[in-house]
């Protein structure tokens, strides 16, 4: 080999290794940035809590006689308890990492059970509960007890008073429960629409359709659709699927169902092409052997070829789920951007990806919570990836 050829080969190797190194470095930096900014917010509250905080304003009449309520044994030293009012507070931090005071215990005989809703006196179910956040307590004869002063100070102020003007408390809020449920609904509905159509279309094109200009044109159109920006599909969803769902369902605006239909159209080219490639790698000897044993073309396709292509179809499904989870541009039009806690497939809501978009459009942008949601998305995709590989591996062993 000449020196010139060796130099060229070495240069190509350097370019290859350098490009791979840069790609890995960039991806690693992105993951590190996301984990660094969002890891501190990852907890069970983020997943289970509603996003919107519900505030309550409670009032109480003056109490002349208090019956002291002993402190329960299950409370620890970090729970500040008032025997007079039968309630325990604890210093905590909210989902965004800011200090708060959380209610850890309310006795059934607590005088606070007699509070009334200052915003709605007819609300007879009004009560303070465990895990509520106490914002402030306003007194008649002294300064208000605020959450920034800590739980111990607030309990001390309560113990020194026989009444108060108002107590402001709230639900936890800040969670992504609604967006997570919306994402799961969207995945399920999208796959319900897209997988049967995509798989059967691929079966037709690969197993039954004749190779001619018409089928070649269909394949070219399918491949072209994979390169269309998703926001164009979103406009199609807004113009087609939203009116259809409004007309034939209880929906009155963009909704989860219209978003799922839009995503199904987006995913069809991916599912069709991936499934067709999976069918192509099934050896023709399988088909000939089945036909030789007396099976017809349909039986061969569905009992021999399709099961053999299952790992590839599972991979196509994984790609589809990943696309659903990560899609935002199309869903902004087809499903809406309103972050909801009460979820209905006929109502507006947001997926996790659109939730991130909404957070980043706030002023100022909530980068920490956006990164925390990104970590959850990465974990979901990782779990799905491992699950698909495990299913494929198990199926291949049985086969």
Structure description:
This protein is an alpha+beta fold and 399 residues long. Helix content is 56%, strand content 10%. It is built from 13 helices and 8 strands. Helix 4 runs parallel beside helix 7 (256-280), helix 10 (310-326) packs antiparallel against helix 13 (367-398) and helix 12 runs antiparallel to helix 13 (367-398). The model has no long low-confidence stretch (mean pLDDT 87).
Major sheet: 5 strands, antiparallel
Structural class comes to alpha+beta
| Tally of alpha and pi helices | 13
The strands making up the biggest β-sheet line up spatially as 5-1-8-6-7
Please indicate the percent range of residues in DSSP E strands (runs of 2 or more). Answer: 5-15%
Helix content: 55-70%
Kindly, what is the distance between the CA atoms of the first and last residues, rounded to a whole number of angstroms? Answer: 47 Å
Unreliable spans are: none
- Total strands: the figure is 8
Taking all Cα atoms into account, the compactness measure Rg is 30 Å
């Amino acid at each position: 080999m000449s020196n010139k050829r060796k130099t060229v080969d070495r240069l190509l190797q350097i370019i290859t290794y350098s490009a791979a190194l840069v790609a890995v470095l960039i991806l690693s930096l992105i993951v590190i940035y996301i984990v660094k900014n969002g890891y501190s917010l990852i907890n069970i509250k983020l997943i289970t809590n509603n996003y919107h905080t519900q505030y309550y304003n409670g009032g109480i009449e003056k109490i002349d006689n208090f019956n002291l309520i002993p402190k329960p044994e299950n409370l620890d030293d970090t729970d500040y308890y008032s025997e007079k009012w039968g309630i325990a507070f604890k210093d905590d931090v909210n989902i965004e990492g800011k200090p708060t005071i959380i209610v850890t215990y309310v006795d059934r005989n607590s005088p606070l059970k007699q509070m009334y809703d200052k915003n709605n006196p007819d609300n007879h179910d009004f009560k303070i509960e465990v895990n509520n956040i106490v914002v402030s307590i306003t007194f008649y004869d002294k300064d208000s007890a605020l959450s920034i002063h800590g739980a111990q100070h607030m309990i001390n102020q309560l113990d020194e008073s026989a009444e108060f003007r108002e107590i402001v408390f709230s639900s936890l809020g800040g969670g992504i429960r609604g967006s997570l449920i919306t994402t799961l609904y969207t995945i399920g509905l999208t796959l319900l629409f897209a997988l049967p159509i995509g798989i059967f279309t691929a079966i037709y094109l690969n197993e039954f359709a004749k190779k001619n200009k018409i089928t070649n044109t269909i394949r070219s159109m399918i491949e072209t659709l994979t390169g269309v920006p998703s926001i164009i599909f979103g406009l199609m969803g807004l113009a087609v699927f939203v009116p259809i769902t409004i007309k034939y369902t209880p929906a009155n605006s963009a909704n989860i169902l219209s978003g799922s239909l839009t995503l199904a159209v987006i995913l069809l080219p991916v599912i069709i092409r991936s499934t067709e490639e999976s069918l192509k790698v099934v050896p023709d000897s399988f088909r000939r052997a089945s036909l030789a044993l007396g099976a017809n073309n349909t039986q061969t396709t569905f009992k021999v070829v399709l099961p053999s292509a299952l790992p590839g179809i599972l991979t196509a499904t994984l790609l589809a789920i990943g696309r659903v989870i990560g899609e935002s541009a199309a869903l902004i039009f087809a499903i809406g951007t309103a972050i909801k806690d009460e979820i209905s497939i006929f109502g507006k809501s947001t997926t996790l990806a659109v939730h991130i978009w909404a957070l980043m459009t706030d002023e100022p942008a909530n980068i920490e919570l956006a990164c925390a949601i990104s970590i959850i998305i990465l974990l979901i995709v990782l779990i799905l990836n491992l699950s698909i590989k495990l299913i494929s591996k198990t199926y291949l062993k049985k086969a």
